[in-house]
Design a protein that fits this description.
The structure is a single chain. This protein has 302 residues and is an alpha/beta fold. The chain has helices spanning 3-16, 19-26, 30-44, 60-88, 100-116, 134-137, 169-175, 223-231, 241-250, 279-295; strands at residues 49-51, 56-58, 92-98, 121-127, 141-145, 154-167, 188-192, 200-205, 208-213, 215-220, 236-240, 254-255, 264-271. Strands 3, 4, 5, 6, 7, 10, 11, 12 and 13 form a nine-stranded mixed beta sheet that branches. Strands 1-2 form a two-stranded antiparallel sheet. It has a two-stranded antiparallel sheet with strand order 8-9. Strand 8 and strand 9 (208-213) form a beta hairpin. Helix 1 packs across helix 4 and helix 2 (19-26) crosses helix 3 (30-44). It is elongated and about 85 Å long. The protein starts with a helix and ends in a 7-residue tail after the last helix.
C-alpha cells in the first residue's frame, strides 16, 4: 500500500462516513479501501477509527491525524499539479466572479489576454451584481468593488475607481451647466439604484462632501444603461470611470462639475484562505495585479 493512498482512504472515510463512500471517492472497491485502512493503522502503530455496523468514529489518534491529513494531501496535490503545469503549461479551469458591467467592460478583456498565453486553460467567468459565496458557488477568484465586509477571505487590492458626474453636450446645451452640486436638484438625473442610500448623490471636493438629492425620468440598476441614456441626452448620470472613459475622451460625454467626484471605491480580488493557491490561480492573480497597476486604474488602456 502506498502511504498516500491510505491517507486518502482515511480522510475520505471520515468525510463520507463509510468505507463504501471512501471507495467511491478514491475509485477503488470497498474491500480494498478497508484493506488500505487496516494497513495504514498497522503502519501508524495505532487504531485510527472505531468501526460499528452503522458508522465510523475517530479515535484520539485518528482525530490528531484528521486535523492535519487533509491539508497535507491538499499540499501534495498542489505541488504535483505545479510540477505538471510547469512541464506542459497551465491547464484546468479557473472560476472567476465579477460584477456584471465591470466584468463585461474590464474583466473579460483581461481574461481574454491572459488566456491567449495559456490556451489549455478554461476560464469560467460568472457575472453577478451580488457577492457570491465562494464555497457554495465553487469560485476560485472573485473581483469585488466597494467595501469588504469582515470575513475569512483573503483580499488582494487591485486598484480604485471613482464615480463621475457626466452628461452629453446636447443635454447641457439645452439645460445649461450646473455650477454647484446644489444645482443638480434642478436637472434631470439618471439614478442608478445599485447605489445604496437615500437617493442622494455624494460628491466630494477635496475633503468636503456634498450630498444632493436628485430626481429624473429614469431609474436603472445598471451603470452601462445609465451611460447609454446620458449619451442620448436623457440627463446627468453618476457613472464609474471605467464605463465612461472612452466617451469622455471622444466627446460623447463631458464631466459635470469637474472639480467634484463621487465616492472612490477600492477593488479587490478575494479568494478562500487555502494554504497555497493552485498555480493557475496564482498566475492569474499576479497578472491582474500587474495589469491594474500598469493601467493606473481599473480600465485605462483595456
Amino acid at each position: 500500500m502506498d502511504l498516500v493512498d491510505g491517507m486518502r482512504v482515511f480522510v475520505s472515510a471520515v468525510e463520507t462516513g463509510s468505507f463504501a463512500g471512501a471507495a467511491r471517492r478514491v475509485g477503488i472497491t470497498p474491500k480494498l479501501a478497508s484493506k488500505y485502512m487496516a494497513e495504514l493503522e498497522a503502519r501508524m502503530g495505532t487504531q485510527l477509527l472505531h468501526r460499528t455496523t452503522r458508522r465510523l468514529g475517530l479515535t484520539p489518534a485518528g482525530e490528531r491525524l484528521m486535523a492535519q491529513a487533509p491539508a497535507w494531501l491538499g499540499l501534495l496535490d498542489e505541488m504535483t499539479a505545479d510540477l505538471r503545469d510547469a512541464q506542459r503549461g497551465l491547464s484546468g479551469t479557473i472560476r472567476v466572479s465579477a460584477a456584471v458591467t465591470h466584468g463585461e467592460l474590464v474583466v473579460a478583456p483581461l481574461l481574454r489576454r491572459f488566456r491567449a498565453d495559456h490556451p489549455d486553460l478554461v476560464i469560467d467567468l460568472r457575472l453577478s451584481d451580488r457577492f457570491v459565496d465562494l464555497v457554495a458557488d465553487g469560485v476560485d477568484l472573485a473581483l469585488r468593488i466597494g467595501h469588504l465586509e469582515a470575513s475569512s477571505l483573503i483580499a488582494r487590492k487591485l486598484g480604485t475607481m471613482s464615480l463621475l458626474a457626466v452628461a452629453s453636450p446636447g443635454y447641457l446645451d439645452r439645460h445649461g451647466h450646473p455650477e454647484t452640486p446644489g444645482d443638480l436638484a434642478d436637472h434631470l438625473c439618471i439614478c442608478d439604484t445599485n447605489m445604496r442610500g437615500d437617493g442622494s448623490w455624494p460628491l466630494r471636493d477635496g475633503k468636503q462632501e456634498h450630498r444632493v438629492r436628485v430626481t429624473g425620468g429614469f431609474q436603472v440598476n445598471n451603470a452601462r444603461i445609465a451611460r447609454d441614456l446620458a449619451v442620448r441626452d436623457e440627463g446627468i448620470a453618476l457613472c464609474p470611470d471605467y464605463v465612461v472613459r472612452d466617451d469622455l475622451a471622444e466627446g460623447r460625454l463631458v464631466r459635470v462639475l469637474p472639480r467634484f467626484h463621487g465616492p472612490c471605491l477600492n477593488m479587490h480580488a478575494v479568494y478562500l484562505p487555502q494554504r497555497r493557491l493552485p498555480r493557475r490561480t496564482r498566475t492569474l492573480l499576479e497578472f491582474l495585479v500587474k495589469s491594474f497597476a500598469e493601467a493606473k486604474g481599473p480600465a485605462a488602456g483595456f
